[in-house]
Every structure is written in C-alpha cells, then in structure tokens.
Amino acid sequence: MKAPSPVLERTDRGIARGSRPWAKAPTPSTKPAKAITTNVLCFAIAAVLFALPLVYMLLQAFKTYTGFLQNPTGMPDPWTVESFSTAWRQGDFGRQMINSLVYAVIPDTITLILGVFLAFPISRGYFKRSNALYTFFIFSGFLPGGLIPLFIEARTLHLYNSMAGYLILTSLSGAGFFFFVGYIKGIPREIDEAAALDGCGYVRFIFTIIMPQMKPALATFAVFGFVHAWNNLILPLVMLSDAALWPVTRGLYSFFGEYTQNWPLIAAGTFIVAAPILLLFVLLQRHLVEGVAGGAAFGAQGVTAAPTGVAKTGQGEGS
Amino acid sequence: MARCPFGTQRTRRFIPWASIAIPGAGWLLFGLYPSLATIGYSFTRYSGLPGTPLNFCGLCNYSAAFTSLSSVVGDAVRVTLVYVVGATVLQTAAGLGLALLLNRPGRSYAVYRAVIFMPQIFSVAVVGAIFALMFDPYSGPVQKVVNGLFGATSAFLGSSSLALPLVILVNVWMFSGYTMLIYIAGLRNIPPSVYEAAAMDGAGRLRVFRHVTWPLLAPATTVTVFLTAMGTLGEYALLMVLTGGNFGTKTLGLYMYQSAFGGDSQLGYGSMLAMLQFFLTVVIGGGLLFTLRRREISL
Hints:
The structure holds 2 protein chains of 2 kinds. By secondary structure, chain A is mostly helical.
C-alpha cells in the first residue's frame, strides 16, 4: 500500500518539528521488539482494512472489460487507462465537475461570510436575549427533518431544478454559524471599542479585523463545508432533475446504475469523483485529522479541549 | 445586553439587526420553516403534483402507520433500531480499540491515523460503489475469499440475512476513524500522573484500563455515542446506494425518502415518517444524553 504520497510525508515532518502534546503520553514502547510488532499491526490494520478497498477499486479501473471478466480479482492484464477517458466522456463528468465546483465553492464562501455576520452580534450580546437566541438556533437542529417541505417550498419559489435556485438554497440554509460564536467570544471586546472610536465602519471591521482573527476557524469550516457540499447526494437527487445540472456525486449514482457489472468503467468513474477530495485530503490531512483530534472541528481551536468543553460543543456539532 | 459601538447615534441600534438579516431570513426560510412545516404536512395527503390540493386528513397517515401498514412501518422502526444500536456499539468499540493502538508518537502512526480517518471524506456515492464492488456476488473479492475459505457462496448485500449487518459494517468502516480521533483527544487529556499513581499501586494493564482509562474517557464516550447514534438515526443515503432499502435494510429515513421522492410522491405520508423519525431521535437522544451524563458524573 503506497497511500502516503510525498506531500503527505512532508506535511508530516512539519508536525514532527512542532509541539507534540502527546509525546509525553505514557506509551509502553520501551521494548523495541514490541514497538515494532505494534507498528506492524497498526500498519496492517490501516493498509488491509482501510486502504485496501480503495486501492482494489482503483486497480479495477486499469483493466479492460474483457480482462476484468476473465480474471475479476487478479491484477490488471493488460493495463489500460482507457476506462478513465471512456468514463469521463460517457458519464459527462467534465460538466459535472464544474457543477460540483460551483455548488461547493459559492455556498461555502457565502455561508462563511454570512455565518460571521450572524455570529458576531449574537456572540457580543447585542440583542436582548442573545443567549436564548443562540440556544434556540442550536436546538432547532433537532427539529424534524425538513427535506419534504423544503422540496415543496423550492418548487413554489421556482428554486427547483435550477442552478441559481440550488445555490440560493444551499448558501442560505447552511448552518455552522454557532461554530463561530464561541470563537468570536475569544476575541477581546476592546478591539471593537477601539476600532469604533477610530471611525471604522461595521462591515469593514468584520472583514478586515474580525475575519483575519478567525483564520483557523474559518479555514477548518471552509474545508469541511467544501467536502460536505461536494459529497452531498440527497439534495441534488431531490432538487435537480435535469442531468445538465447534476454534480459529480449525482452523476456517479446514475452512472453506477447504468453500467452495472462493467466494473472497470464504474471504478474509473468512482475514482474521478473521489480524486479532488482525495487530493484535498492529502494536501490538508494534517489540518483535518489532527484538527479533529485537537478539537478544531468543534470550534475550540488552540484550546486543549477540556473534557466537558468537548462534550458540550460536540453535542452542538450533532445538531 | 451589550451596546453596539459601531455607527452613529442613529444607526447603531439597527446595525446588529442588519447584520443578521440575510442569514437569519435564510435560516427561517430554509431551516426553521421546513422543519416545522413537516408537522403540518404530516396531517395531509398532499401528493405534490402541481394544482392538487393539500388534502388535509387529520391523523390519517398516523393511523395508517399504526394499523393497515403497520408491518412496513414496524419493520422500518425495527431496522432503524438495529442499525443505530449496531453501528453505535461497533463504531465505539472499533474507535476505542484504534485509539488505544494508534495514540503513539511517530510519523508512521500519524500516517496510519490519516488513512483510517480517510473513508469519511468520501461521498456515500463513492463508498457505496466501492463496497458494491467488494461484495459483488459474481466478481467481488469477498465472494472469492469466502468461497475459498468455507466453500460457500452468498449474495451479501442481496441477502436478507446479511445485508443489514454488512451495511452496518460499511458504516463503521466509514466513520470509525472519527470516533478514534475523539478517543485520542480524550486519551491525551488524561494526565500522566494518574498512570504513575496506578503503576505505583501495582495495577496491571487490564486494571489500569478498567479503572483509570475507561472512566476518564467518559466524556469522549458521551460525545461519540451521542453523535454516532444521532448520525446513524438520520442516515439513509449510504443505505440507498448500497441496497436501495431492499433485503431488510429499509430504515425510517430511507422509507421517508422513498415514499416522498421514489415515484409515489406521497409527501404527506413521508412527512409523517419524518415525524416518527423525529420522535425516535428525541427519545433516543434524550435518553442517551441523560444516561451518559449521569454516568460521567457518577464515575
């Protein structure tokens, strides 16, 4: 298994140089032989249980269809990249890739900005019942799922089966602002007062002072938001009937049904859909993985998440 | 209530409201309203076809669910519960085991953690395709291995006895990396002095785990059990891709999706199923929070 690419290793050396909060953790690795056994066991788990299904899938993509039929579980013989170009053409993945990018980047950016504008006044307590409002926002996530009324509403408002409509829906419904509220509380209020005294306007203040202060939180949210939007399958299924508007996930779902049993082709299509996310993951894996471990995904960036803190914000995440 | 320092005397009262106007309206329109409207639509026979009336019918969907169609709804509830309990228990166990194994310093372990975390960044469409291939009864590798080992063949995702356990396993495969990371964060919060004290008292590794590590991981267990249970309760996209809800894998969520968008467009009936799912969420989520929190305090 050769999943770790040069990029992955390089970012990893970056961690090695940095602080390692767990380095002092009592790990019983005093005996070298035992440490090697543990390492091999962990490698086997990661490689066989978690990486192998992906690698196996990728291998199928390099087979010809007849090669696959003759030896479905063996190595590709002969090797070919034809499936990739065939899948790209027949699945219309080029157009869908652009759609997916649009559906992921635009709502991600807009929810990010709107989220800060929503979170800031609530976090600063500018309203009479800011805390109650905040609690209500969070608990509204536990209300019944609204997919069916959202579909009816989208049709009434002519947002159904349109790219602009889909963008409006996803840009405005995206929650995640409560992710920011706690973070903004950590930014001292004195900055607000000083900026206001100097005549800084509200919008300019948010963009030039608050948002740069929130970089780690915004980055984490942007990455997870992008991945979430890219991967969404249900909303495109419900809201977009026209194949020209589909994102790659929706396209793959149909492609999968259309070419059942032509596994080299499906494998190539699957890999095409997964590749951008895989690339993002390899580039940012340190941020994503150690970020979650350190509680960054819970909006507690930089704070060694106290157990209760993780529990509390963690529940918020679930809403 | 704090005063907003921005703007002039006249504008400062309105600036906070202007700031939340667009995202707040969006949330009301596309977040809160659809959620609440589900309650209303669950009392109708609305088909969603343009020009058709709402067909308010009181509790008709609920009575249908509990009488004539009870076997379908009952099955869906049963499948949902099995799915939630199975995935939560297995994922918590797998995540804990992986965390204990992989919470070690060193570059190789960081790579292993990243690989184990990786599956959940993929779309369910991707994961579904991968495991449809792995479990393909004609040309999949799992069939070959099972056949070689036991000389038996199985339809796997097409078998009514195996489909549900297998989709649970795929779910665990996809998300146990997340549970692992939550547990690793928990492990790193345990002060080394506690272990030193336990070692001083001559506690063996098993006793240390049972009486030190596991109790001190209680907050992490609360988070992961609650999040996994809530997540699997609402999950149906993966099931849809893997089995289409056939072979005993139709959860309430999938049943809701299929009755509303699967061609019949029974939007009212689907809303009722969404309400049933909501009741399950409240009961299970509330019960879990109550017991997990009490456990945390008593430990």
